[in-house]
UniProtKB/TrEMBL annotation:
<dbReference type="GO" id="GO:0005886">
    <property type="term" value="C:plasma membrane"/>
</dbReference>
<keyword id="KW-0997">Cell inner membrane</keyword>
<dbReference type="GO" id="GO:0055085">
    <property type="term" value="P:transmembrane transport"/>
</dbReference>
<feature type="domain" description="ABC transmembrane type-1">
    <location>
        <begin position="127"/>
        <end position="346"/>
    </location>
</feature>
<keyword id="KW-0813">Transport</keyword>
<feature type="transmembrane region" description="Helical">
    <location>
        <begin position="129"/>
        <end position="150"/>
    </location>
</feature>
<feature type="transmembrane region" description="Helical">
    <location>
        <begin position="162"/>
        <end position="188"/>
    </location>
</feature>
<feature type="transmembrane region" description="Helical">
    <location>
        <begin position="218"/>
        <end position="241"/>
    </location>
</feature>
<dbReference type="InterPro" id="IPR035906">
    <property type="entry name" value="MetI-like_sf"/>
</dbReference>
<dbReference type="InterPro" id="IPR000515">
    <property type="entry name" value="MetI-like"/>
</dbReference>
<protein>
    <submittedName>
        <fullName>Microcin C transport system permease protein</fullName>
    </submittedName>
</protein>
<comment type="similarity">
    <text>Belongs to the binding-protein-dependent transport system permease family.</text>
</comment>
<keyword id="KW-1003">Cell membrane</keyword>
<feature type="transmembrane region" description="Helical">
    <location>
        <begin position="276"/>
        <end position="303"/>
    </location>
</feature>
<keyword id="KW-0472">Membrane</keyword>
<feature type="transmembrane region" description="Helical">
    <location>
        <begin position="323"/>
        <end position="349"/>
    </location>
</feature>
<keyword id="KW-0812">Transmembrane</keyword>
Length: 359
């Protein structure tokens, strides 16, 4: 197993490098870079994208002449050149990429162009929202899906299985943002009840509350956004659990266990559960990281939460490249490591799995 893990870790390097090369190369052809944004604002043109006509697609990375910049015609060339030096766009793309990767290897993600704060500090600042939505959504999804999936497998073909399947399909079909709007209208003062707050993770007087008061205040604020984030997450997991149990229940060892006189509960949870849960539990790291870092922009916007979803969107729109590439590098690295952890989870759950023997 050690050799397999070492090979996987070594594969992380070229994979991560390929991701960064592709995305860095694509930005060379994207118009409306940070310098264009600044120049357009100085010229009073508002949104820089309104002035992009066609040519000069690489101007945002300092590759074109001064006149390539939208709004640059009425400003001194010395000023534009100074902006290029400040943002580092006076250097060739290859040199910029190599410098960026060298810094990232030392986990130096630089500073945001427009926020005067390091990328790492910016991500940590937004992290509480992502932790809240990711952690609780994942836990609730598992707490609902596993018992429900087992129940559906045991009662396969019964009315219970039929109507729960219908409810799951309806829940899966409803977009999260639409369900969020429904929750706001019903329970957040939209038209009916005002039971839950509509802004932030905590109240303004949070620091003045007791420990129990802080806990209750936190859960009071996160109830609606977590529900909105969870509505479609448990559907796939429930059906996966059900199908996994159905597949195991039909196997010979289950028939043998029943023939020996074991109770249905002992057969189900003593023999079937471990094998059936292999694919479900082993996917927990990937599911958690996916929900954790894939912050929902619309959910965060509707509930006035400033998390990683909004951070990523705003950075992409503003062409805040340190934030875009820094978070891309960090999250890609975490995703690749989680893939290795998923394989290790398989082995921990079922020692019969041997990735070394497979090779």
């Amino acid at each position: 197993m050690g050799a397999y893990i070492l090979r996987r870790l070594l594969l992380v390097i070229p994979t991560l490098l390929g991701i960064m090369i592709i995305n860095f190369t694509l930005t060379q052809f994207v118009p409306g870079g940070p310098i264009e944004q600044i120049l357009a604002n100085l010229e009073g043109q508002g949104d820089v994208f309104e002035g992009i006509s066609g040519g000069g697609g690489d101007a945002d990375l300092g590759q074109g002449s001064d006149s390539d910049y939208v709004g640059g015609r009425g400003l001194p060339p010395e000023f534009i050149a100074e902006l290029e030096r400040e943002f580092g766009f006076d250097k060739p793309p290859l040199e910029r990429f190599l410098n960026m990767m060298w810094n990232y290897m030392r986990f130096d993600f630089g500073e945001s162009y427009f926020r005067s704060i390091s990328v790492l500090d910016l991500v940590l600042e937004k992290m509480p929202v992502s932790i809240t939505l990711g952690l609780w959504s994942t836990l609730i999804a598992y707490m609902i899906s596993i018992p429900l999936g087992i129940k559906k497998a045991v009662k396969d073909g019964t009315p219970f299985d039929t109507w729960t399947s219908g409810a799951i399909i309806v829940g899966y079909a409803i977009p999260g943002f639409l369900f969020a709007i429904l929750l706001i209208v019903l329970f957040a003062g939209g038209s009916y009840f005002r039971l839950f707050p509509l802004r932030g993770l905590t109240s303004a007087n949070f620091e003045e509350l007791s420990l129990i008061g802080k806990v209750l205040d936190y859960f009071w604020h996160i109830t609606l956004p977590v529900l909105a984030s969870t509505i479609s997450a448990f559907a796939t997991l429930t059906l996966l659990t059900k199908n996994s149990f159905l597949d195991e229940i039909k196997k010979q060892y289950v028939i043998t266990a029943r023939a020996k006189g074991l109770s249905e509960r002992k057969v189900l949870y003593g023999h079937v559960f471990r094998n059936a849960m292999l694919i479900v539990i082993s996917g927990f790291p990937a599911l958690f990281i996916g929900v954790f870092f894939g912050g929902s922009l619309i959910i965060e916007t509707l509930f006035s939460l400033d998390g990683l979803g909004r951070l990523g969107f705003e950075a992409a729109v503003a062409r805040d490249y340190p934030v875009v590439f820094g978070t891309l590098f960090a999250f890609s690295l975490i995703g690749l490591v989680v893939g290795i952890l998923t394989d290790l989870t398989y082995v921990l759950i079922d020692p019969r799995i041997d990735f070394e023997a497979r090779n």
